[in-house]
Automatic annotation (TrEMBL):
<dbReference type="InterPro" id="IPR015943">
    <property type="entry name" value="WD40/YVTN_repeat-like_dom_sf"/>
</dbReference>
<dbReference type="InterPro" id="IPR019405">
    <property type="entry name" value="Lactonase_7-beta_prop"/>
</dbReference>
<dbReference type="GO" id="GO:0017057">
    <property type="term" value="F:6-phosphogluconolactonase activity"/>
</dbReference>
<comment type="similarity">
    <text>Belongs to the cycloisomerase 2 family.</text>
</comment>
<protein>
    <submittedName>
        <fullName>3-carboxymuconate cyclase</fullName>
    </submittedName>
</protein>
<dbReference type="InterPro" id="IPR050282">
    <property type="entry name" value="Cycloisomerase_2"/>
</dbReference>
<dbReference type="Pfam" id="PF10282">
    <property type="entry name" value="Lactonase"/>
</dbReference>
<keyword id="KW-0732">Signal</keyword>
<dbReference type="InterPro" id="IPR011048">
    <property type="entry name" value="Haem_d1_sf"/>
</dbReference>
<feature type="signal peptide">
    <location>
        <begin position="1"/>
        <end position="18"/>
    </location>
</feature>
């Protein structure tokens, strides 16, 4: 038994190293204050631990996106502001003990859900689901923001109840840093904006999807990881559609002035077999080694995972994470489908090595960490979990040495 424990501990040590994770969560039912929680991930004898270090409640009612792109010792929190007069971006200082402290805030258009820093982290673009908008800001050296642009969309309602208005859900910069795409779930399009020499955004021709697709998030990929538009290997934009639960692949080109265009080359479901009724796709991301594409499926608990309470034998229903192998022609092959660890995986993130995946399971209010095989892309056993959140979790951010 002692040898078994030592071997298991050694196995975990090879894939689970000390790290911190920051997790945002909505206000609980009895509260109007959301939280950003600091978790400590450490090795243990036979298991890894995921322990709460601190909780910060200074970012409003609905913190929903965390960004540490400037690498300046701060975390920038997007707050949707459901129970606040206005939405906001809050600047939090990271302490050595994991404690977060607010030092600045800017009120912005309602309903922001995603941020994207650009221009060498001197500016940021924000997607607004609730406010039907795209906004941009100058990022100041002291960690504050100055408003630059606001684009408000008045598109007509779509065919689905969720499409009563424009709902911009994600902001993603292209690998060359020249333009940003914004999937708009409400208007069935991916909005495209080029970045000018003045760092202002200019609207270009959108990518139109079929009606009722509901594009939610997106990720860029090039086979060799070094995009040069118009040359091989091609660069592709993968768009995940929430309402139809599919992924579409677009080949990216640019004209002489750098304006991008997109050609659809492939589309696929997120399940190997029959698609469960009511499933809702959410996050999409390329693995750190550029070899795989991962996507999360919600509202279809096709798996179950062991209860973290050793005294409780009842298994926990689990949604799933699908792993694709992208090919040079833009097509995708499903190579793995695994449990997310709980219900409604709104977000997930891989560590630097790509051998661990942390999943924010919104409805089950848990963060679950799984081993991942970097060679095959397969997600393996759960090595740590934190179930003790007051509100629904929605985003997880790694911090590693």
């Amino acid at each position: 038994m002692a040898l078994h424990k030592l071997l298991l501990a050694a196995s975990l040590a090879s894939s689970v190293s000390a790290a911190r994770l920051y997790v945002s969560s909505y206000a609980a039912n009895s509260s109007t204050v959301g939280k950003v929680t600091t978790l400590d991930l450490k090795n243990g004898l036979g298991a890894a631990s995921l322990i709460k270090l601190s909780e910060n409640s200074e970012s409003g009612s609905n913190p929903t996106w965390l960004d540490a792109s400037p690498d300046d010792g701060n975390i920038y929190v997007i707050n949707e502001g459901w129970f606040d007069p206005l939405a906001s971006i809050t600047s939090l200082k990271k302490g050595k003990d994991g404690k977060l402290t607010k030092f600045a805030k800017i009120d912005i258009v309602q309903g922001p859900v995603s941020s994207q820093f650009y221009n060498k982290n001197k500016n940021v673009a924000v997607a607004h689901y609730g406010g039907s908008a795209i906004t941009s800001y100058k990022f100041n050296k002291n960690g504050t923001f100055t408003t630059q642009q606001e684009f408000i969309f008045k598109t007509p309602p779509g065919p689905r109840p969720e499409q009563e208005a424009s709902h911009v859900h994600h902001s993603v910069i292209d690998p060359t840093g020249k333009f940003i795409v914004f999937p708009d779930l409400g208007s069935d399009e991916v909005r495209v904006y080029t970045i000018g020499k003045d760092n202002l955004l200019t609207a270009q021709k959108s990518i139109k999807t079929p009606a009722a697709y509901g594009p939610r998030h997106a990720a860029f990929w090039t086979a060799n990881g070094a995009p040069v538009y118009g040359q091989k290997p091609s660069t592709y934009l993968f768009v995940i559609h929430e309402l139809i639960n599919r992924v579409t692949s677009y080949r990216v080109s640019t004209d002489a002035s750098g304006v991008p265009s997109f050609t659809q080359v492939f589309e696929t479901e997120l399940y190997k077999g029959e698609k469960p009724v009511g499933t809702r796709a959410a996050e999409i991301s390329v693995s750190p080694d550029n070899q795989f594409l991962l996507a999360s499926n919600r509202n279809a608990t096709i798996f179950s995972v062991p209860n973290p309470d050793p005294k409780n034998s009842t298994k926990i229903p689990s949604d799933s994470i699908t792993t694709f192998k992208p090919k040079a022609d833009g097509s995708l092959e499903i190579v793995d489908q695994a449990a997310s660890g709980g219900s409604f995986p709104r977000h997930f993130a891989l560590n630097k090595k790509g051998d661990l995946i942390a999943v924010a399971n919104q409805r089950s209010k848990s963060v679950d960490i799984f081993k991942r095989n970097v060679k095959t892309g397969a997600i393996g056993e759960r090595v740590a979990t934190q179930q003790n959140f007051d509100g629904e979790v929605n985003f997880v951010l790694w911090e590693e040495d």
